Amino acid sequence: MARGGHDRVLALQDSASGLRAFLALHHTWRGPAWGGIRVWNYRDEEAAMLDALQLSRAMTYKCVLAGVPGGGGKTVVLADRLEDRPAAMARLGQMIEDLGGIYRCGPDVGFVEADRLALVPHTQWFSHDQGALRSAGEATAEGVVWAIRGALVHAFGDDDLANRTVAIQGLGSTGFALAEMLMAQGARVAGADSDPDRVEVARAAGVEIVDPAIIYETPADVFSPCAMGGLLHDLTIQKLQAKIIAGSANNVLARTDQAQLLRERGILFLPDFVINSGALIESAGLTETGRTDFSEELKRIGATASKVIARSLKEGITTVESAYAMAREILQKEDQARQDRGERAIPAFGQDEV
Ligand code: NAD
To answer: Model confidence at 344, in pLDDT bands (50, 70, 90)?
Structure first.
């Protein structure tokens, strides 16, 4: 926590339902902490807590670069400990409600519709309003499309998706929506998923199905990781064939310094926290403004991605360093403005790996 600059982490448990979860609030100085609920099998509690720490920290950078007035949070629920899942989600909802709005949540990997139905009666802070908004996956996918188009300009000179090939890992709520949007704009899409049902839906929609074990080494202009984090490491990076990496998956690099390896291989890596903020923008925006159309804000994700790339090229740094530098400059400006108004300074948070 000290290295990552986290504000607080709550360990949640309810023995009646088997709820075991960690709720991390990374930054609470710019407004509420935003972050989804992940339900996943972890090796042990330490691994779950580490995931909550890393994901909540990335959410802070995501908020800053997306222009959302808030910080990062995240809940991870240990899936294999759940005994009465609806009761556990109801209890989690009560616990989130008890936080009084300091934490605003939405769906993340493994959080299914039945979980949402069990949780929402107990908290007003589940902020992805599915009545008013489209699915979180669709919103996130649209932001990723804009980012890919921004990167295409840098790599190939134009943002035309026709005749470009995109290989997508994970055809779930974000990955499948992305595939559909890209195909509608003329791209050829290859995709892989470990779930045979997802594969069948994608195949029927026109995705060329690839073995999940080799999707990242499939020849393509863009590789789009839309499953779990940690996929890109020393070994997988050597096998990548795409010129651009841009997807929805959080924390896709096993270590952030591996961005250097990508840079040395001439691969344009778009950091996830710069480009997967579509659902965050829509949820936070609806809460703040009551609007439901955020097309302009989502388009800006492409412009931000382009700025991140341009700065990395100009300064000879990785895109991750470039994105961090941009976020820190925004935070410093905000901090100065706070101090000018006589408010307390925002505490510094570390740049080290968590
Ligand atoms: P999802 O659960 O709907 O989809 C993930 C898919 O990946 C599933 O279909 C799963 O079977 C597949 N998968 C898992 N491991 C795989 C592997 N090794 N190879 C191939 N397929 C694999 O989840 P999602 O909501 O689409 O989220 C995907 C990623 O995007 C996550 O990292 C999530 O944190 C991130 N993200 C999601 C949103 C959102 O709006 N849903 C927003 C920001 C970031």
So the answer is: confident
- Is pTM beyond 0.90? Reply is yes
Residue in 74, 243, 307, 333 annotated catalytic: 74
- pLDDT (tens digit, 9 = 90+) per residue, 100-117? 999 999 999 999 999 999
Secondary structure of residue 249 in the 3-state scheme: coil
The backbone torsions φ and ψ at residue 129, rounded to the nearest 5 degrees and listed phi first, read: -75, 105
Q: List CB contacts of 289: < 8 A, sequence separation 6 or more.
A: none
Distance CA 133, CA 153 (A): 30
Q: What is the DSSP letter of 351?
A: -
Q: Using pLDDT thresholds of 50, 70 and 90, give the confidence band for residue 350.
A: low
Number of CB atoms found within 10 A of residue 263's CB = 19
Rounded to whole angstroms, how far apart are CA atoms 11 and 23?
Answer: 6
- Token pair, residue 209, equals 């199905």
Tokens of 50: 């580490």
Tens digits of residue pLDDT in 46-69? 999 999 999 999 999 999 999 999
225 within ligand 1 shell (Cβ under 6 A): no
Best probe residue, ligand 1, of 193, 201, 277, 301 (max atoms within 8 Å of C-beta):
193
Tokens representing 44?
């042990």
Q: What is the pLDDT of residues 160-173, one digit of tens each?
A: 999 899 999 999 99
Query: From start to end of the chain, where are the E strands?
Result: 8-14, 19-25, 33-34, 37-40, 71-78, 103-104, 165-169, 188-192, 208-209, 222-225, 244-245, 268-269
Would the CB of 224 count as within 6 Å of ligand 1? no
